[in-house]
From TrEMBL:
This is tRNA (guanine(26)-N(2))-dimethyltransferase. One of its GO terms (biological process) is tRNA N2-guanine methylation. It comes from the Archaea. InterPro entries: SAM-dependent_MTases_sf (IPR029063), Trm1 (IPR002905), tRNA_met_Trm1_C (IPR042296).
Length: 373
């Protein structure tokens, strides 16, 4: 007796490629979320993929792998738009692997190898058989922590790994115990929790790489929607990793203000970390990138503006609530702080977040002047 599977597919268009994936509208009619799709595709992650293509094409990289390829849209775009010579698309769902093959033929692309296998197993195999790639994508559903060891080994020397984390509650300190278990970071929810999450992810990646005698140099990190994303250049050698470990530290938060403590030799009482206290965006690296489209260009401009700022940001809504004053326009606050000789820029993570070298007391005094005039 033969059995037949009926699958509702829909033809989508993203970037320069067309592809079949689960019909999300039909799924919604059944009362099911997109996470239950037999062939996974999340349209809200388009910017995530756009940034990947921008980086890959700007650096003229040659080989790439997506070991959690799902519908294959990122792999297809790396080939069609990124200019990759070789792409490896893998998924543990064999049905997804068949759909990817169909999508490769649909777009008349060559140089894309498709396989049904476990992501960690394939990453370990790539390292063992010296099939490492210039670019490797790690974009799981939830935390990247269980996959990171294997994936780091599969990147060529000088290659790039892009890491997505969608488990925001632990990373943002909402679930401190899980943050500690998954990332080896102690913390709680703070007003600047989104940036704390990014710096925790960077710290975890650097420490994991160091254990493998690898150096994971942070190049560009950002948060958008329901995820945080970080790109690293992978080099080999314990000495390189030691240099990066020196850029880890702690944050002390008390009465609405915070203090950054560099170095992890000792953990100060009440401190949270260890987190990355260096730059989350390297201006030199950002300057090499050509944005794929207007949306990516706007993100890059925001990142460029805040790139040289100190760790974390002050939230105007929290300060004004304490002062019982109306919130002034962030643009005016930033301009005023710059006139005072401070670095000041809006954080891309919070519309009311200001990254600045000014002390909390100076910001409060400034707000009093601005709201009284």
């Amino acid at each position: 007796m033969s059995s037949r599977l009926t699958l509702a597919l829909r033809l989508y268009r993203e970037g320069k490629v067309s592809f079949y994936s689960t019909d999300l509208e039909e799924l919604a009619k059944m009362g099911l979320p997109y996470t239950k799709a037999p062939i996974f595709y999340n349209p809200r992650m388009k910017l995530n993929r756009d940034v990947t293509i921008s980086i890959f094409s700007s650096l003229s990289l040659k080989s790439a792998a997506d070991l959690m390829a799902a519908s294959g849209v990122r792999a297809l775009r790396l080939k069609a738009e990124g200019g990759a010579e070789e792409v490896f698309a893998c998924d543990s769902n064999c049905l997804s692997a068949q759909i990817i093959k169909m999508n490769v033929k649909l777009n008349k692309l060559s140089g894309i190898r498709v396989k049904c296998s476990d992501a960690r197993l394939e990453a370990e195999r790539m390292a063992w058989e010296n099939e490492r790639v210039d670019y490797l994508d790690l974009d799981p559903f939830g935390s990247p922590a269980p996959f990171l060891d294997s994936f780091l080994r599969a990147v060529k020397r000088g290659g790039i790994i892009g890491i997505t984390a969608t488990d925001e509650p632990p990373l943002f300190g909402i679930y401190p115990d899980k943050l500690l278990r998954y990332y080896g970071v102690w913390g709680k929810k703070l007003p600047f929790c989104k940036e704390f999450g990014i710096r925790s992810l960077i710290s975890f990646t650097i420490r994991t790489a160091a254990r493998l005698d690898l150096a994971a140099e942070p190049l560009l990190s950002y948060g958008e929607g329901h995820y945080v994303r970080a790109y690293f250049r992978i080099e080999r050698g314990a000495e390189r990793s030691k240099h990066l470990l020196k850029e880890l530290g702690w944050v002390l938060y008390k009465e609405g203000d915070f203090e950054i403590i560099r170095g992890i030799d000792e953990m100060p009482r009440g401190a949270m970390g260890p987190i990355w206290v260096g730059k989350i965006v390297e201006p030199e690296f950002l300057g090499k990138l050509s944005p794929l489209n207007e949306e990516v260009g706007k993100l890059f401009e925001k990142l460029k503006e805040e790139a040289d700022g100190p760790p974390f940001y002050q939230r105007l809504d929290i300060i004004c609530s304490k002062l019982n004053m109306r919130i002034p326009k962030p643009k005016i606050v930033i301009e005023s702080l710059r006139e005072m000789g401070h670095f000041a820029a809006r954080s891309h993570l919070d519309p009311l977040g200001i990254k600045t070298t000014a002390k909390r007391e100076e910001i409060e005094d400034l707000i009093r002047k601005l709201t009284s005039s």
